[in-house]
């Protein structure tokens, strides 16, 4: 096992402000934008940061990247049903448990931050509490609502079990981080946490990275306009409904003026490609697969509209969609369904479908494509909202402040959370 390098993030010879171990299971940390931004913000504020996560392509078991100590394990096989999900959670928990001893040896940690899903790492935090380690729960997803939305089940045994697991995270955490006010209300009510123990840290885009570049007209594949989707392609994300909306746009409204680029990956990607073929949309729809920063900049800088097709569901109604904020960072107007937290994020930077049907989404898109002045106005509103309220720079202050208070550290004059980033 290679020896970790000396603690990064603190100046040579200076005592670090604290040591944090972040646990994330659903993605390799460097492609989980929120978690990577959290890690970098702590580094810039003088903390030592370690991460345990699944191993990405060409990654090693241990490495230091931009000052972050990253411990990785081989991911579990792809899940296909309830039994495989249970195996994945158990497998990842055990691999994380054993790697936590490596992280504890050097550089060490004072706090464990567990990012869900799943809601199982409170048990690991309880073990390390024997060694006086604190626990922060970073609440990314409402797992009971994910189950409701994905499997159309409510109040059965598994749903109740998910509530119990979520309650474990809420109960045993020294502090709870949430992504928006809707999640905060759930922490205060369902989680029974006092208000002072819950902090909203929004998943805002990093404007040092999310900057438009010169458009590349050739990406539009010869069409006057382009509309972009960026994000995960799972059952609850509504990309199948987006394909239906594109079908309505092309084959019912009779429009051939727009190229559609769908960036991302997920459980439904293969089915979505089949759906596009069945509907005869190959000429209009492009799948890029996993998108790196350069691809995202090129496509979003060359697009006219950002697409947020998340359908109404118990999960989506109260969740902040990162893609919506990223479209706004690039000055793109957004087409979305009328969900509570989507309105909180986008406000007047979006056009909302009049009903929950794909046909209404298609009509809203067509109206926006036909109105360049409105597109420009909405794009400007969105970019200003990101700059003034919703970028990671604003969230980073809240985030680092939680650790300063939790560990009793005095707040530095310049905490290093101004939004500067290291190249990854």
N-to-C series of helices and strands: EHEEEHEHEHHEHEEHEHEHEHEHEHHH
Provide the structure class. alpha/beta
Ends apart, CA distance between termini? 23 Å
Number of strands: 14
- Percent helix: 40-55%
Shape: globular
Strand order of the largest sheet: 3-4-2-1-5-6-7-8
Radius of gyration: 22 Å
Q: What is the mean pLDDT?
A: 91
- Biggest sheet character: 8 strands, mixed
Give start-end ranges of low-pLDDT stretches: 1-13, 412-424
Work out the strand percent. 15-25%
Number of helices: 14
List the helices and strands and how they pair.
Layout lengths: L18 E6 L8 H12 L3 E7 L7 E4 L2 E6 L8 H24 L5 E5 L6 H8 L4 E6 L3 H9 L5 H16 L2 E4 L2 H9 L8 E3 L24 E6 L8 H14 L5 E6 L5 H10 L6 E5 L3 H10 L2 E4 L13 H8 L4 E3 L3 H7 L3 E3 L5 H12 L2 H19 L1 H15 L18
Parallel strand pairs: 1-2, 1-5, 2-4, 5-6, 6-7, 7-8, 9-10, 9-12, 10-11, 12-13, 13-14
Antiparallel strand pairs: 3-4
Word description of this protein:
With 424 residues, the chain is α/β, with parallel strands linked by helices. It is 41% helix and 16% strand. The protein contains 14 helices and 14 strands. The protein has an eight-stranded mixed β-sheet with strand order 3-4-2-1-5-6-7-8, sandwiched between helices. α7 crosses α12. The longest helix is centred in the N-terminal third of the chain and has 24 residues. The radius of gyration is 22 Å and the shape is globular. The N terminus and C terminus are likely disordered.
């Amino acid at each position: 096992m290679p020896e970790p390098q000396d603690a990064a993030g603190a100046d040579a010879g200076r005592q670090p402000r604290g040591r944090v171990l972040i646990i994330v299971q659903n993605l390799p940390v460097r492609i989980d934008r929120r978690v990577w931004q959290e890690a970098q913000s702590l580094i810039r504020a003088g903390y030592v940061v370690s991460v345990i996560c699944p191993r990405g392509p060409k990654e090693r078991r241990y490495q230091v990247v931009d000052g972050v100590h990253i411990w990785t394990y081989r991911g579990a096989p792809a899940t296909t049903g309830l039994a495989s999900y249970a195996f994945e959670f158990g497998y990842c928990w055990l691999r994380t448990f054993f790697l936590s001893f490596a992280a504890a040896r050097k550089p060490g940690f004072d706090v464990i931050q567990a990012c869900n899903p799943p809601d199982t790492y409170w048990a690991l935090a309880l073990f390390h509490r024997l060694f006086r380690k604190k626990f922060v729960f970073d609440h990314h997803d409402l797992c009971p609502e994910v189950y409701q939305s994905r499997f159309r089940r409510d109040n059965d045994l598994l749903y109740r079990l998910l509530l119990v697991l979520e309650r474990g995270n809420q109960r045993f955490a020294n502090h709870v981080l949430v992504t928006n006010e809707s999640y905060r209300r759930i922490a205060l009510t369902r989680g029974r946490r006092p208000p002072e123990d819950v902090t909203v840290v929004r998943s805002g885009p990093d404007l040092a990275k999310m900057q438009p570049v010169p458009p590349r007209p050739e990406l539009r594949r010869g069409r006057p306009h382009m509309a972009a989707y960026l994000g995960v392609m799972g059952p609850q994300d509504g990309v199948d409904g987006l394909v239906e909306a594109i079908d309505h746009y092309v084959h019912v409204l009779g429009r051939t003026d727009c190229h559609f680029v769908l960036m991302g990956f997920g459980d439904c990607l293969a089915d979505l490609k089949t759906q596009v073929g069945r509907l005869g949309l190959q000429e209009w729809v492009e799948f890029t697969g996993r998108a790196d920063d350069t691809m995202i900049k090129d496509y979003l800088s060359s697009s006219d509209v950002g697409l947020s097709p998340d359908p109404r569901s118990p999960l989506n109604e109260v969740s902040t969609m990162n893609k919506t904020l990223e479209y706004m960072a690039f000055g793109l107007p957004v087409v979305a369904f009328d969900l509570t937290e989507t309105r909180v994020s986008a406000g007047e930077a979006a056009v909302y479908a009049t009903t929950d049907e794909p046909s209404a989404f298609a009509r809203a898109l067509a109206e926006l494509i036909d109105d360049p002045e409105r597109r420009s106005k909405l794009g400007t509103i969105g970019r200003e909202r990101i700059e003034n309220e919703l970028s990671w720079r604003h969230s980073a202050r809240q985030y680092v402040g939680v650790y300063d208070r939790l560990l009793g550290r005095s707040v530095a004059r310049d905490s290093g959370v101004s939004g500067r980033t290291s190249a990854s």
